[in-house]
Amino acid sequence: MYQTNLSVIRTLLLLLLPQLTSAAAAQGIESTGSHLAGERPDAIGGPTPVSVSLYVIDIDAIDDVNQRFSVDMFINVSWQDPRLALPQDQRLGQSRTFPLTDIWGPRGLIVNDRGLNPQLPEVAEVDDLGNVQQQQRLSGELAVNLNLKEFPFDTQRLSIDFISYQYSPSELRLSSPVGMIIDARPFSAAGWRFKMLEPELGEFTVPAAGISRPQLTFFVQAQREPRYFLLTTLLPMSLIIFMSWTVFWLPPDVIPARVGISTASIFSLIAFGLSVRLSLPAIAYMTRADIFSIGCMLLVFLALGAAVLGSRWASVDRLEHALRLNAVARWVYVLLFVVVVVAATVG
Question: Which of 30, 57, 219, 274 has the smallest CB count inside 10 Å?
């Protein structure tokens, strides 16, 4: 039974092989028989030079909480393989298409890939002289290590880390003669301004395994537009601060109104502070927004304490002291708020 199944499969393959071959030829895809896929071209002549360039079509979004950004881009990887060059009399100035499995390639990998999807066939274009170009369009998410200390006035460097996962720096040399090209149109990610930066060469290392691989990192600078946070968070928090400030304009013996304004201000600020933190990852350091939130909360608690003290003095026949406290606190409170604003914005 087992041998019968094998003979049936073999017969089907023999029948289908001419059709598959003709279909590949119709698409213009040639084959080298995969005998050139293993050894590097000119392996004894030093590291093989490989050029990498990027064309960023769009950046859809930057996710602060998950530290990801979504990108749509073209990547072009090129190298020279003399073994694929045609004889002089056969050079017609036309490119040939080969499957990547049939020729040698740099075995490229984007390290911070978190869900990129290729959209083009896995093939390479080769000209008559053996110049090879591998092009691919990729879209999806990349990981990024965000530094949010200056949030919401921060500027981030979004990296695209390209390495060869198989060859060492002594075997393969990366370069980027073109670098990165960015579409002149604004990207889809709202609330950011983008700028191209120079790529950087380096090495990707795994010290525990003794692995070192050539790395080429492309950077896009993303500067956050702070107006959204100023209008939706910082401005309302400032208004709450001045609502709390009004307790110093009320008579010290109006206890329910003074305490009510102070406690309402505290609860409102806590809610706004939590909303800011929910828009950020679980980071172990304070941002500028945190400094502003904490400073505002301390001011509101200070206003509550001053209101309680003044009301206490008014209830024990020390009204003159309570009025003097009100007069001083009106201007000291404003001065302290200015200090909080400067600490949060200028640092």
Answer: 274
Kindly list the domain boundaries of the chain, sorted by start residue: 31-224, 227-345
| DSSP bridge pairs for 157 | 221
pLDDT (tens digit, 9 = 90+) per residue, 232-286? 888 899 999 999 999 999 888 888 888 889 888 988 888 888 888 888 888 889 9
Mean of the per-residue pLDDT values for the chain?
86
What is the C-alpha to C-alpha distance for residues 218 and 161, in angstroms, rounded to an integer?
6
Whether residue 105 contacts residue 78, with contact meaning beta carbons closer than 8 Å, is answered with no
Mean pLDDT confidence for 173-179: 86
Going from the C-alpha of 163 to that of each of 29, 48, 69, 120, the distances in angstroms are 27, 14, 19, 20
Q: pTM for this structure? A: 0.80
Give the domain 227-345 fold: Methane Monooxygenase Hydroxylase; Chain G, domain 1 (1.20.58)
CATH superfamily of the domain spanning 31-224? Neurotransmitter-gated ion-channel ligand-binding domain (2.70.170.10)
Contact 142, 73 (CB under 8 A): no
Closest CA to 213 of 268, 171, 179, 247: 171
